[in-house]
Amino acid sequence: MKLPKELVISRISDEVAHGSRVLDLGCGDGTLLKHLKEVRNVVGYGIEIDSNAILSCIKKDINVLHWNLNDLPLDFPDHFYDTVILTHTLQQVLRPKELIDEMLRVGKEVILSFPNFGQYKLRFKLLTGGRMPSTATLPDKWYETPNIKLLTVKDFYDFCEENQIEILTHYFFRKSKFGMVPVHNFANLRADVAIFKIKRK
Amino acid sequence: MSKIIPYKNIKYYTFAENKDFCLESGEMFGPITVAYETFGTLNEDKSNAVLIFHALTGDSHVTSSYDDDDSTPGWWDSLVGRGKEVDTDKYFVICANLLGGCMGSSGPSSINSDTNKPYGSSFPFISVNDMVNVQKKLVDSLGIKQLECVIGGSLGGMATVSMMTNYPDIARSFIVIASAYKTSSQIMAFYEVGRNAILADPYYHEGNYYGKELQPERGLGIARMVAHITYLSTTGMENKFGRMIQENVINEKLAYSRFGPMFAIESYLRHQSKKFIARFDANSYLYLTKAMDMYDLTQGGKKTLASEFSNVNKKVLIISFTSDWHFTPSDSWEMAKELARQGKDVSYINIESSYGHDSFLLPNEMQERAVESFLKNVGGK
User: Fold this and answer.
1) Domains in chain B, CATH or no CATH each
2) Is A183 helix (H, G, I), strand (E, B) or coil?
3) Chain B residue numbers touching A61 (CB-CB < 8 A)
4) Is-contact A70 A93, C-beta < 8 A?
5) pLDDT tens digits, chain A, 201 residues: what are they?
6) Residue A132 lies in a domain
7) Is this prediction's pTM over 0.90?
8) Partner residue facing B370 (CB), from A45, A58, A65
């Protein structure tokens, strides 16, 4: 799926400390890491499974390591990274809970974003159409979507509650004709994208 | 009695005439000759040089870009040469025959100046670090302070790892392909079978077979056959040979008249072995394979990968191939992970290929693009 780039990237980089050590899981073509390197001077590594995306990272001079996020545990020591980032990939892995646990283990803090399946248009489409909804944020048919573990904002709150995870910050965005705009109320209904910064309680 | 070297532009650098080169074993040795070729032009400030290490049985002829005809293909023509990803119009590429080899550099088949006879088994035991130290001397002799990059695959990759850890500032970048920081037990086992085949050959004569009418060719040939299996993959072999029968040799002497027809894979291995015998020296094979088996950056656990990588301070690219079981992707991952753990500039890509260990020598778009993109960001400006 396509990451709604600029705003999400700038919000994430606001949350990353200057000069920190960052691991970006599912880093894609390295756009976020390149931005973080430029504006936050981070020591960053990307983890990526797609060879072409890896080549794009190498081209951008971004350190990237070929690894499948379904192969857990992550091969790094405890609290090794200041920040571990997972943008729009959580819903694509086989064992999201284990992955989040691992991220919280290798990172002091975790920033993750995901498409909110609780968004009202999706609910409405499923309710009225009776078929798996497809939207600009989640465009694929059920049989070819990489998004296999969809969740809502509320699901994520529940998950953090049940797993001793502290939510440090959150941002919600919805798509509008002016691009992505922040959502302040009724996030689970209105947000297309959620960003959370979390750490272990 | 080195093999005949068909490369016109081969050059020789000789040093340690006073036997003052200290090998890793502690033995003093000399003189040492390095046979090497260079491709492209060294720029004025000598900043565009790339050193390439060949693999176990390779030589200095990494590219045929500058040959008059196509009688001597370069072993890395797919990647190195004019207009290639390692572009000799831009870089000054140096490739030297490894110490212990038989393509011009000092090795067991070279003449010992003390006796005027080939060294044979009296050639000293050599290590990967020795091979690297020798090439460091060569780089120094060319007046090059810092290379743009050191690149190597397989044993050449081990040499690159050795270079990167022993001389971290010799280059601005390092590319380690289809390699490892030590050989697995399984692969050592295959090479041990090969060495035994040579040692058991009745014409081996304890290594002093030079000048004799009959050479330990069967042993060397079998060693090559065994090793060659480890360079392919299950899928690769199945796709290429399957259970195909080599019809054209069915009536030849070579075909197994008692055991039935010859399979394509049998014929292929025999062909590879025949080609190899013509170009390689049995003693060199023993020395080089043993050096490869002995190489272990951690010295059998006495040191850690972490401590050995702590000096690395330049950009590193590590490439492996999915079907390679000679030096596996996890061998590469171990190195990449450790470098990342130390905050070094490292990237690692595991390229999809069914050609096994041989993948790195074959045209492979992903490998070529990775090397090209990586080199572009090295910038020895």
Assistant:
1) 11-183+297-376 (3.40.50.1820), 188-288 (1.10.1740.110)
2) coil
3) 377
4) yes
5) 444 567 788 889 999 999 999 999 999 999 999 999 999 999 999 999 999 999 999 999 999 999 998 888 998 999 999 999 999 889 999 999 999 999 999 999 999 999 999 989 889 999 999 988 887 778 888 899 888 899 999 999 999 999 999 999 999 998 888 778 889 989 999 999 999 999 998
6) no
7) yes
8) A58
